[in-house]
User: Which sequence fits this backbone?
């Protein structure tokens, strides 16, 4: 009876230890942190390599901006975005963003896959590479 | 009055931790975040094992399962294998129902005095919010594996997608976050509002709830209001997992707070009431098989009692007994 009890307890502790140390033995970080590729023909051709807003803002807020653009353009018909520095852009994922960032796999997906974020942009929008094919 | 002091003290403790974390983040102490996670995790693992081993060593001389139904008896008497398990299968089923569904809490009852008479009724709210809180917490913990696995486990991505399927806002609100907060709010208000429960609530009771609430609140603030650089967060987490820790790069104050709350939570867990995480498996009244009547159980450390049998007594006093005319069994 005593042996029986300790066997079960040690088995339980072993399962617990294996489960909570999971991140230490799974995968072991095979992939390095993502490096974004900005090398598309359109960006190379730009005189001033500048996104709609500055990079720090875009990194933190691009998802909110895209959501706001969608609502304003589709529901309110306001299709022109004026950036902080006065430049104007068409509020369009395909028409504005993807013109420069035409490399979804090396731009969007690298970070999104790394942090496990699954945006729903391309549930509706077409992937640029598919246009080219 | 003392009970209100407990609430106040636990709020102050949480605030103090938040301030310390903010100070640590400001004072270029991120180097700490290369050591603290290992210290906290080490305490968690070692403390957990220590507590379980200590429980396992505690003497349980008798079969003491709580019997909540008809035990196995004569074949024509219907028995209740889940509430009074007669074999290992029943005990496993009972434990599973307890761990996953909080079955015994489902039987929670409440007594009220109506017209001078006690009236008993069922009370399911604690069971409902308790189960909701624990389930949400499990989902939240599993979702965080996206920071600790590379490539991200497909199951984790799937769980996150399911959890955020209402797509409220960007980034999407996770339903488990909402239910977690609802559960916590119920559990806290129950302690703070009901006089009977407030009377028996101690500092550690409030502190445990508020600590988890602080973790959830800072996490939600980071996700929805003060976005952090997720790439940097994941690189930091993967650094811990691969034993090549890097200090977080320009982490926000709120990230340091979140991390400090989590470190304190997991380091303190084995030494607090939150250890019911392991304790539920070690409850003799739930995990024992009720076979008191089919098997003979002898207390394994029964002290050998010195006895003097009648036979020995007669051997010792036979001559005197005969002389006194007393009857003896052996001449």
Assistant:
């Amino acid at each position: 009876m005593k042996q029986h009890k300790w066997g079960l307890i040690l088995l339980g502790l072993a399962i617990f230890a294996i489960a909570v140390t999971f991140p230490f033995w799974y995968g072991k970080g095979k992939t390095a942190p993502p490096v974004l590729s900005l090398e598309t023909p359109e960006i190379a051709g730009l005189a001033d390599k500048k996104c709609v807003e500055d990079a720090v803002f875009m990194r933190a807020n691009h998802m909110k901006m895209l959501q706001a653009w969608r609502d304003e353009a589709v529901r309110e018909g306001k299709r022109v975005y004026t950036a902080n520095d006065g430049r104007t852009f068409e509020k369009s994922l395909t028409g504005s963003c993807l013109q420069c960032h035409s490399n979804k796999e090396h731009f969007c997906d690298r970070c999104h896959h790394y942090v496990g974020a699954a945006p729903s942009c391309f549930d509706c929008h077409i992937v640029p590479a598919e246009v080219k094919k | 009055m003392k009970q209100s002091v407990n609430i106040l003290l636990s709020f102050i403790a949480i605030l103090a931790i938040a301030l310390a974390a903010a100070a640590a983040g400001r004072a270029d102490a991120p180097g700490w975040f290369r050591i603290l996670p290992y210290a906290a995790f080490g305490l968690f693992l070692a403390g957990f094992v220590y507590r379980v081993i200590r429980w396992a060593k505690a003497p349980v001389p008798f079969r003491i399962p709580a019997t909540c139904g008809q035990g196995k008896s004569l074949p024509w008497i219907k028995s209740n294998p889940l509430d009074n398990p007669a074999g290992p299968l029943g005990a496993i089923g009972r434990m599973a129902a307890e761990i996953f569904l909080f079955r015994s809490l489902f039987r929670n009852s409440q007594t009220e005095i109506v017209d001078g008479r006690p009236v008993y009724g069922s009370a399911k709210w604690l069971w409902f919010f308790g189960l909701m809180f624990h389930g949400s917490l499990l989902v939240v913990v599993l979702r965080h594996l996206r920071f600790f696995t590379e490539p991200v486990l497909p199951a984790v991505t799937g769980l996150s997608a399911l959890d955020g399927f209402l797509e409220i806002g960007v980034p999407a609100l996770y339903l488990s976050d909402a239910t977690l907060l609802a559960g916590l709010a119920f559990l806290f208000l129950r302690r703070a509002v009901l006089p009977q429960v407030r009377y028996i609530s101690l500092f550690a009771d409030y502190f445990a709830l508020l600590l988890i609430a602080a973790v959830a609140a800072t996490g939600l603030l980071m996700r929805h209001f003060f976005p952090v650089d997720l790439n940097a967060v994941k690189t930091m987490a993967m650094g811990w997992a691969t034993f090549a820790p890097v200090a977080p790069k320009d982490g926000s104050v709120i990230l340091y707070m979140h991390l400090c709350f989590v470190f304190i939570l997991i380091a303190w867990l084995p030494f607090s009431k939150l250890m019911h995480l392991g304790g539920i498996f070690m409850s003799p009244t739930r995990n024992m098989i009720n076979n008191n009547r089919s098997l003979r159980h002898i207390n394994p450390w029964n002290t050998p009692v010195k006895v003097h049998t009648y036979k020995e007594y007669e051997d010792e006093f036979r001559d005197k007994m005969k002389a006194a005319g007393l009857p003896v069994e052996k001449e």
